């Protein structure tokens, strides 16, 4: 009996190891190196998933999501503890104003009027931050970190921009652009939740 239980346990472990994405080394997605870890607020985060944002047939950016622990559902991501990071690596030149408007449309599609009313000041600051960015060049990297006790901190190529946005609920509202019920790219959502990139 004990042998059969041990054998089943070993088999289950082996299946999990085979089926789970192995990201010990950087992933190559559309020529972009996606690192397996990231450090935010002194804590090492793990790559949860990654993929390409495509608009019609144009590849816009590679996105990667980093968390303290692996999550396979949107709700799990929203509820995850500790710091977080998502990165966008540009695959083409994009005007910052257009980028900001696309983000605002994604937030609107995936949140209620009550949620948006709650975060109206942060929504305004978020939109204005991108108006002031100018052009985002191909190869540029945008990072958006959740730092517990501080808030959402954004940077482009390592240079901070915009205000610190203090509410975790707002950070989750931003994540809903890609992980919500009406994601901006239905093929990117599974990748961010750990599906192997195509």
Structural class: alpha+beta
> And the CATH topology?
Chalcone isomerase
Number of E-type strands: 11
Mean pLDDT: 88
* Main β-sheet description: 7 strands, antiparallel
Domain Chalcone isomerase: 28-194
Organism: Inhella gelatinilytica
GO molecular function: intramolecular lyase activity
Signal peptide: 1-24
Tell me what you see in this structure.
Keywords: Isomerase, Signal. This is Chalcone isomerase family protein. Residues 1-24 form the signal peptide. GO terms for molecular function: intramolecular lyase activity. The protein is of the alpha+beta class and 198 residues long. The protein has one domain (24-192): 3-Layer(bba) Sandwich (Chalcone isomerase), CATH 3.50.70.10. Helix content is 37%, strand content 32%. The chain has helices at 2-19, 74-79, 96-110, 113-118, 120-131, 168-179, 188-192; strands at residues 27-29, 32-34, 37-40, 43-55, 58-67, 84-90, 94-95, 135-136, 141-147, 151-156, 159-165. The strands form three sheets. Strands 3-4-5-6-9-10-11 form a seven-stranded antiparallel sheet. It has a two-stranded antiparallel ribbon with strand order 1-2. A two-stranded antiparallel ribbon has the order 7-8.
